[in-house]
Amino acid sequence: DIHGQYYDLLRLFEIGGFPPSTSYLFLGDYVDRGKLSLETICLLLAYKIKYPDRFFLLRGNHECSKINRIYGFYDECKRRFNVRLWKIFTDCFNCLPVAALIEEKILCMHGGLSPELQNLSQINSIERPTDVPDFGLLCDLLWSDPNPDIQGWGASDRGVSCSFGAEVVAEFLKKNDLDLVCRAHQ
Fold first, then answer.
1. 139 closest CA partner among 168, 169, 111
2. Which domain holds residue 111?
3. Is 160 in the same domain as 186?
4. Distance CA 47, CA 141 (A)
5. Which of 17, 39, 72, 183 is the most exposed, fewest CB within 10 Å of its CB?
6. Same structural domain for residues 127 and 178?
């Protein structure tokens, strides 16, 4: 999660290499909390436009109008420019992909698994543009969390989506011939 920490993002590029010399897959939460969300998201989108085959952006739960309206991005847009700019970014966020598959073996998303998710074709079936619903597959992909203290599925401490135990992950990996689920959100 970058959360508007523009200088941390620049430091990441200094250490890992600037695009296109290094490929990147970011897992969401580009805005809110930090003071430079606009610089952060504009740089990321510029790199995506310039290097579309080497730079990838997934949607996080903060790339949602209901969330970034509260946690700072709306206020930053309104204070520095206008509400219209925030609405344009909202339209952009509603089009972002929610998952990526690396070499057919590593499934990446911002949040985690969903009790509704049986196979990867379900993710491809999520229509875009779309806002994030309060429940269901899309919500879970952006909001769910692993919990080492439970078996199966459980309630989330966040009050949104759900949590899942290690055996849920193991079963999902085996069923879908995957090696790893890679996530952010913490």
1. 111
2. 98-186
3. yes
4. 24
5. 17
6. yes
Is 62 among the catalytic positions?
yes
Give pTM, 2 decimals: 0.97
Only one residue has tokens 């219209």, namely: 84
The answer to whether the beta carbons of residues 77 and 85 sit under 8 Å apart is yes
Q: Do 110 and 58 form a contact (C-beta atoms < 8 A)?
A: yes
- Per-residue pLDDT reduced to its tens digit, 8-65: 999 999 999 999 999 999 999 999 999 999 999 999 999 999 999 999 999 999 999 9
- Look up residue 176 and give its two tokens: 């879908």
At residue 44, φ and ψ (nearest 5 deg) are -60, -45
- Whether residue 76 is found in the same domain as residue 88: yes
**Which residue among 78, 96, 114 closes a domain?**
96
Per the structure block, which two tokens stand in for 54? 């080497």
Q: Using CA of residue 127, residue 110, residue 115, residue 71, what is the dihedral sign?
A: negative
